[in-house]
Design goal:
This protein has about 210 residues and is α/β, with parallel strands linked by helices. Helix content is about 50%, strand content about 15%. The protein has a single domain, classed as P-loop containing nucleotide triphosphate hydrolases (Rossmann fold, 3-Layer(aba) Sandwich). It has a five-stranded parallel sheet with strand order 2-3-1-4-5. α5 crosses α9.
Length: about 210
């Protein structure tokens, strides 16, 4: 059986990653693909602790949080029961809402980005995405897209998101070997969704 493809959605908070991942999953499944949709932080033990940190329920320093993201990511990749590799080896298309570029962009605000990239080396060497889609929006759009959220996570402020967006661009420039495509998600949903579908279909058809 041919190994499945690994597609990652990245972007600042409120960028539409989750929406596009769900829409793509539904469309691919209608075409007969077996699709596994997941996210980071994961549902593993480290991921659960991370969710507490992100909602202000922990006083861990940022470097420790960066290390937790890395720990959760390795478990997310290698867990024999539910890991990314186990799904890919079944031939499934794996869609992941956030992966290591999120660490570079967010954790890289509080620790040297080179260090964050380095501690994630094992993840990059073990499982590199076949395609990373960066859903790009203006940070100001965050306000209208997230005003209904019950909780605000520690990174969800417009000025912070401007820095995060810039960090994404710095990380993409630092790692030119990564297969990253920027999608303008300021456009209407249907138009952006069609672009996402076209890009992913091209990746799925690559041998």
């Amino acid at each position: 059986m041919a190994r499945g493809k690994f597609i990652v959605f990245e972007g600042i908070d409120g960028s539409g990653k989750s929406t596009h991942a769900v829409l793509l999953k539904e469309r691919l499944e209608k075409e007969g693909y077996s699709v596994f949709l997941t996210m980071e932080p994961s549902e593993g033990e480290a991921g659960k602790l991370l969710r507490r940190c992100l909602t202000g329920k922990s006083d861990l320093p940022e470097q420790a949080i960066a290390g937790l993201f890395m720990t959760d990511r390795i478990d997310h990749i290698l867990n024999p029961a539910s890991g990314l590799l186990s799904h890919l080896e079944k031939g499934e298309v794996v869609l992941c809402d956030r992966y290591y570029f999120s660490s570079f962009a967010y954790n890289g605000m509080y620790a040297p980005m080179d260090w964050v990239i380095e501690i994630n080396r094992i993840a990059r060497e073990t499982l590199k995405p076949d395609l990373t889609l960066f859903l790009d929006i203006q940070p100001e759009s965050f306000l209208s897209r997230t005003e209904s959220r019950a909780q605000t996570e520690r990174y969800e402020k417009v000025e912070v998101l401007k820095r995060v967006r810039e960090n994404y661009r710095k990380a993409f420039a630092a790692l030119p070997e990564e297969k990253v495509t920027v999608v303008d998600n300021n456009k209407p949903l249907a138009q952006a969704s069609e672009e996402v579908y076209r890009l992913v279909k091209a990746a799925l058809e690559e041998k």
